[in-house]
Design brief:
The chain is α/β, with parallel strands linked by helices. It has helices at 44-65, 85-102, 111-122, 160-170, 178-186, 206-217, 222-248, 263-275, 285-288, 292-304, and strands at 2-7, 12-21, 24-34, 75-81, 106-110, 130-134, 139-145, 148-154, 197-199, 202-204, 252-256, 279-281. The chain has two domains: 2-116 and 287-324, ATPase, nucleotide binding domain (Nucleotidyltransferase, domain 5); 128-282, ATPase, nucleotide binding domain (Nucleotidyltransferase, domain 5), CATH 3.30.420.40. The structure holds adenosine monophosphate and magnesium ion (MG).
């Protein structure tokens, strides 16, 4: 089966085409355009306008790049949520228009679950992981348990990427600031105490953000502040992931989301996994960030296992929770 997926939950609009080959995922094309605000954070309407400007060209380009024809597409899927309303609506509208004009079925999918499934679909040894999903808006530890994808821990306030970007904005860095903070942190020498808030299995970052901003006012070295932010937040994320592994007795850890590009985070989680005898996986960069191929792949899994949607079922859901998904494709 060949499926075209449209991703549009936040700052990126992506179109990916996948083909299932004996139930494993072959990515045939995966194109992404990212909206960069001139100043400040993401403005939902501006991001949606950006997506609307690019979506048609992206669909044509992805068809060309995949060496397929529109008539070869068997299924259209799209990110139904969670995300920013105007962005989700733009992607959903494009998906509906495409599915109706091609007279093909449509499938709305959960963005967080797609991050996990693309790991299982593209990494051969990754079968039943605990996912540490670290992106701009989302921070969740997700695993399959008793018939559902369940959230074992998550942020109580802002996502980890958002935390880094907000600190970056305070320092007048370009958006997104994660990569810049990573560079600065490499030159950090001194650890500055920051609040480490884990509540049960959940995490909070906003107190840490305020404390980090105070260190700027106290004229501490920026490299040391960035280093301390990374050490503290990443340690907390690793701790919650470790607890989820212990609780579920799984032996695989998967990273997903934009912050998974960070080498320090990878090293910390990898060390923890190795110490527990668990395998550690990170998908290739183009399927690790927000992308259309992961949406296409999850759409395929759902369709192949018997799920169906009518156009009336394709309304977007900004607060679409990971554990609301009816998992029909796993035992
Ligand atoms: P996503 O929402 O999954 O597209 O991821 C975007 C987020 O990833 C933004 O908040 C970026 O600041 C963050 N990010 C990207 N690269 C890095 C990096 N190398 N280190 C830390 N954060 C990063
Ligand atoms: Mg994401």
């Amino acid at each position: 089966m060949i499926c075209l997926g449209i991703e549009g939950t936040a700052h990126s609009i992506g179109v990916g085409i996948i083909q299932d080959v004996n139930k494993t995922c072959t990515v045939r094309s995966n194109l992404i355009k990212t909206y960069k605000p001139e100043k400040g954070g993401i403005h939902p309407r501006e991001a949606a306008n950006h997506h609307a400007n690019y979506i048609a060209d992206l669909i044509y380009e992805s068809i060309k790049k995949a060496h397929v024809d529109f008539s070869d597409i068997d299924l259209v899927s799209f990110s139904q949520g969670p995300g920013l309303g105007p962005c989700l609506r733009t992607a959903a509208t494009a998906a509906r228009a495409l599915a109706l004009s091609l007279e093909r079925p449509i499938m709305g999918v959960n963005h967080c679950v797609a991050h996990l499934e693309i790991g299982r679909g593209t990494i051969h040894r990754c079968k039943d992981p605990v996912l540490l999903y670290v992106s701009g808006a989302n921070t969740q530890v997700i695993a399959f348990a008793e018939g559902k994808y369940r959230v074992f821990g998550e942020t109580l306030d802002i996502g980890i990427g958002n935390c880094l970007d907000k600190f970056g904005r305070f320092m007048d860095m370009e958006f997104p600031s994660g990569p810049k903070i990573e560079k600065l942190a490499e030159k950090g020498k001194k650890y500055l105490e920051l609040p480490y808030s884990i509540k049960g299995m959940d995490i909070a970052f906003s107190g840490l953000l305020t404390a980090a901003e105070h260190y700027v006012e106290k004229k501490e070295r920026l490299e040391d502040i960035c280093y301390s932010i990374q050490e503290t937040t990443f340690a907390a994320l690793t701790e919650v992931t470790e607890r989820a592994i212990a609780h579920t007795e799984k032996n695989e850890v998967l990273l997903g989301g934009g912050v998974a590009s960070n080498k320090r985070l990878r090293d910390m989680v990898k060390t923890m996994a190795e110490e527990r005898g668990a395998s550690f996986f990170v998908p290739k960069k183009d399927v690790c960030i927000d992308n259309g191929a992961m949406i296409a792949w999850l759409g395929y899994l759902m369709y192949d296992s018997g799920s169906r949607m009518d156009i009336e079922d394709t309304s977007i859901d900004q607060r679409f929770r990971t554990d609301m998904v009816d998992v029909t494709w796993r035992e």
